[in-house]
Amino acid sequence: MVSALFIHSPGHLDSGGGGVQACSREYYSALQRAGFELTPVEVPPDRRLASRIRRRIWGDPYSTWIDIGDAVRRALAAAPAPKWVFINQHYLGSIAPVLRKALPEGTRFVMLSHGLESTDYLHELREIGGGPRADVTKRQALMLGWRLVQEARQAEAFDHVFCLSEFEREIEHWLGSASVTMIPRTITPAPLDWRPEGMRLGFVGTLDHHPNREGLLLFLRAYEAIGGRGEVRVVGGPDAAGRALASEYRAVRYLGPLSNELLEAEARTWSCFLHPIFCYARGASTKLATALSWEIPIVTTPTGRRGYVWRDGQLPTANQPVEFARLAASMFDANRATEAREEVRKVAAASPTIEDVAELIASTLLHHEAASAVGEL
Hints:
Elements: E1 2-8, H1 19-33, E2 36-42, H2 49-57, H3 61-64, H4 68-78, E3 84-88, H5 95-102, E4 108-112, H6 117-124, H7 138-155, E5 160-163, H8 166-175, E6 180-182, E7 200-204, H9 210-225, E8 231-235, H10 239-248, E9 252-256, H11 260-267, E10 272-274, H12 286-294, E11 298-299, H13 321-330, H14 334-349, H15 354-376
Parallel strand pairs: 1-2, 1-3, 3-4, 4-5, 5-6, 7-8, 7-10, 8-9, 10-11
Helix pairs in contact: 1-15, 4-5, 6-7, 9-13
């Protein structure tokens, strides 16, 4: 086993939670299987008064979220001479340059990316389905540029970056990262006893996250335009956003946040799982992995399935909202839905496992280490 630190934020290795927890646990498990003896180091947010004031004035996640000195002390106390340091998420990346100076020469640093902060910040500045809003301020534009500058500086601090999608691999290269590998999403089959009831389409997501909100709104507008029937059953929060959707769109039945058990009981009754993502959001959508594991019919988009690879099967996919709405409505036909479910089963069975990802990580980092050793001769 190879000694390594795994630096993360509070709660990110806990069971349950959302996409951040799922990706963090997957990274951790794959690294262990790849042969790394991990020592987790939890880095809490900086709650000092001066830091809280700075965050209110200039809410930059890279320079105001953590106390770098405290984070370095925690890491050194956990393991003074690790061979590898894995940092979970970009907003902790500012630790790397300082920690590198305190650790023995030759310590390798790896970023475990969940996506770049600049990616979704740009989406926050866009109109639904369009470009930047007319009311975007120079301050907001400066914040976007400053995040890109810091991400480019981080690129120089890491020996390797693991990321979650193909397009982010190219952004990482653009920022200056010389060595980047995409880690595909894994699927662990947990099929539901699928028994669709009535005319139900299901959506799960954080409703104030711009890519989720945009995709759902574009779908609902298109679904209304084609005269779509039945219910669109929406699961997630915040509550105010869900209630606003239900009041605006006749098809929406807002169910609020549900526990895993209640969500599975609900999802088994849907004709299909809706996954309308029409922009390149950061990272990859873990909701799609959940739906694939359930082995129920799915309708997604090319951008929604970013970060997923498989050897067999085809997911029902539409590129435009109206096309997506028509495809979703077609799932009320029992034969069409059954055919779609069989394709989902093929995709789930032909997707990478955690062991496949562990092998990819081991071969990538061992190759990187061997190449570096040759370069030092």
